[in-house]
Amino acid sequence: MQWRVLTLGNTPYPFLTSDRPIIMTNGLTGPDAHFGLPISPQHVFLATTNEETFLKIQAIDPAQILHNVNDKVALQAMKYVYGCHDSQLEFVAERIGKKIPSTPLETRKAPNSGAANG
After folding, report:
1. In the predicted model, is pLDDT for residue 47 greater than 80?
2. C-alpha–C-alpha distance, residues 73 and 78, integer Å
3. H helices of the chain, where?
4. Residue 31 in contact with residue 111, Cβ under 8 Å?
5. Whole-angstrom distance, CA of residue 68 vs CA of residue 36
6. What CA–CA distance (Å, rounded) separates 20 from 7?
7. Mean pLDDT rounded to a whole number for the chain
8. pLDDT on residue 68
9. Higher pLDDT, 30 or 67
């Protein structure tokens, strides 16, 4: 994997982060596989499988990257989304927790199945 930090300057609003901020493709073995993590209001950490994938991402309109990252960060948040100010409250309220991805390392407690222990 190649690691980079993508800087977006002059955007209409900052990156958000949350209690589940990692954005990842479906697996990390495909030709365009990548994952991202907002690390500041104008920076996102990117890990890509190759240089071409990074260049494809870098060529996307910065406003679209910002929207895509913030959309996914808010959708998969379990409880908390963080931003610099309250200008994105409506955006977050419409999305928070609507698409929480499943993972084997899930931190939510499973509902009580009624089965006896032991």
Report:
1. yes
2. 10
3. 51-59, 62-75, 89-95
4. no
5. 11
6. 21
7. 85
8. 94
9. 67
The number of CA neighbours under 13 Å toward the Cβ of 76 is 19
> In whole angstroms, what separates CA 33 from the centre of its chain?
14
Check: CB of residue 20 under 8 Å from CB of residue 51.
Answer: no
Read off the pTM.
Answer: 0.81
| Amino acid type, 16 | L
Residue 11: predicted pLDDT: 83
Closest to 44 (Cα-Cα) out of 63, 17, 20, 76: 17
The residue with greater pLDDT, 56 or 116, is 56
Strand ranges of the sheet holding 23-24, from the earlier edge strand across to the other edge: 2-7, 43-48, 34-40, 23-24
Token couple for 56? 């494809």
* Tokens 């963080």 -> residue: 82
